[in-house]
Amino acid sequence: MTLRAAIIGYGKMGQIRHRAMERHGGFEVVAACDTHTGFDAGIPLMTDPMQVYDYDPDVIFCCVPNMMIPDVVCEALKRGKHVFSEKPPGRNSDDVRRMRAAEATRPELVLKFGFNHRFHDAIENARQLIAGGTMGDLYFMRGVYGKAGGANYAQNWRNDPDQSGGGILIDQGIHMLDLFLMFAEGFSEVQSFVQRKFWTDVPVEDNAFALMKSPEGVVASLHSSATQWQHKFILELYTRGGFISVNGILSASGTYGTEVLNVALNRLDQDGNPIPNPESQEIRFTEDRSWDKEIAEFHDAVVHGAPVLCGTSQQALDVMTLVERIYAADTDWTSQRAGHAARAV
Known about the structure:
Elements (H helix, E strand, L loop, with lengths): L2 E6 L3 H13 L2 E7 L11 E2 L12 E4 L6 H10 L3 E5 L6 H13 L5 E4 L6 H12 L5 E9 L14 H4 L3 H17 L4 E7 L11 E7 L5 E7 L6 E8 L2 E6 L11 E7 L14 E6 L4 H15 L8 H17 L1 H14 L1
Parallel strand pairs: 1-2, 1-4, 2-3, 4-5, 5-6, 7-10
Antiparallel strand pairs: 7-11, 8-9, 9-10, 11-12, 12-13, 13-14
């Protein structure tokens, strides 16, 4: 079955989703909306998002800035359209709750959020190894995800908390937190340091350090950074029986290196103690298939009624709530944000 699709927000992400739909073959993109329409997209382009509904789409792809996501998603659900929305899922957990309330009124519709990191080959392999039990109980996780700000950093809407909800943590770190929640399911304790060190002319953080513990005792540490001058992605999972690490991640920017999965099983000495530096197996991935697998899951959910496993509204709420808990755990940062909000009024 071919689904008629309209894209609201035809910037970088909207065009990435368009190409993924074309590769899939189960979609016909009939219209798109964006503030910039002075180019040939091969489809009708308009500036009024309401006009895309004139083309009778079955599904809406929401690829707009954070503050616009709830309005677009709720309107589409109200009109009886299935929805695929980019992350972050709004600016805060209340935005997600609003969308979940709209979703609850239309249970026959599919709502999926685009947390594509779950679909990366290295991540999927790591999840299968942990779920299979051969590695033993998970003890702790470490994650580093960072980039070097970018051109016009201070002017970017992502660094206006009224539009985005926060800085590098909600923009990029949210992906790592979503992966943590995939492996640990939830955290009962959260500590953090949230800082603005280099990009002092913006009201959001450029670094966030978080330490979390699950009810089962799994500890996770995160460093999300906009001052990581050498772009970096590292996810480490240490278990009773060995370790799994993902170094680098294939991305649209191509700046995070090759995606490499390392797996090692502990070797024991004659007394049963683990020997340091066990030999590891390395798997290198050269093709980013996450966009395609994400689109395929959405298509299967709409056409065949298959469950959405990655990117549910509950997962969106869980990760957004965790983001808020990290911000709130640093009382100094909370006070700074409160002061900024007061000055802005």
